[in-house]
Amino acid sequence: MKYFIWFFLVVFVSCQKNAEQKTDDKTVVGIQAYSGFPKNKTKLVAKAIDSFYHVRTVILPEKKLYAQAFVHIKSPRYRADSLIYIEKRNLPDSLDYSIGLTDKDISTTKKANGKMLEPASRYKDWGIMGLGFCPGKSCVVSTFRIKHKNQQVHLERLKKVAVHEFGHNLGLPHCPDKKCVMTDAVESIKTIDNAQLALCSNCQRTL
User: Fold this and answer.
1) 138-142 and 76-79: which strand pairing?
2) What pLDDT score does 83 carry?
3) How far apart are CA 125 and CA 107, in angstroms?
4) pLDDT-based confidence at 118, cuts 50/70/90?
5) What is the pTM of this model?
6) Which of the listed CATH numbers 3.40.50.300, 1.10.1040.10, 3.40.50.720, 3.40.390.10 matches domain 11-206?
7) What is the rounded end-to-end Cα distance, in angstroms, of the chain?
8) Residue 154, Cβ neighbours under 10 Å: how many?
């Protein structure tokens, strides 16, 4: 089955200016794999977040995706914003942040300046790679739209999307530098492939 991953990609964020959240080696990030997500990829994300942001990651017991986040508007999907809100409410005191990982398709409503983009039939249920509120306590990443026949390319995309979404949680907005991992995907997987797994100097100063 073919999925139109080349045209239906976006990373949606709601950023607030000057709202960076500081981290250190005592910051604990829970890596939450949902039903069936491969353990090797969970470990990969944990290691990537740990080494990139110099925080402590903890791999949490796998759990089922929340049924209340399921929608079937265009196709079977889970609403990313609902998953984030649920994880935020359930965040234990032992964790500072959580990152959800799934191989299922996730979506959100794509907006600009608070208004849904037109046509509504396209943007009301917009398939995405990941979602992270800026700032926030939780984000979610899906491998559904970052598939590639080359496994190394696929895993590199996974690391970049996870680092990107958690960067939003820490208060980093989208970056105009196309080589920065915080650049906007602008609905193309090529943007992710062309970006480096690194922050530009401006984003480094922000953190």
Assistant:
1) unpaired
2) 97
3) 6
4) confident
5) 0.88
6) 3.40.390.10
7) 41
8) 14
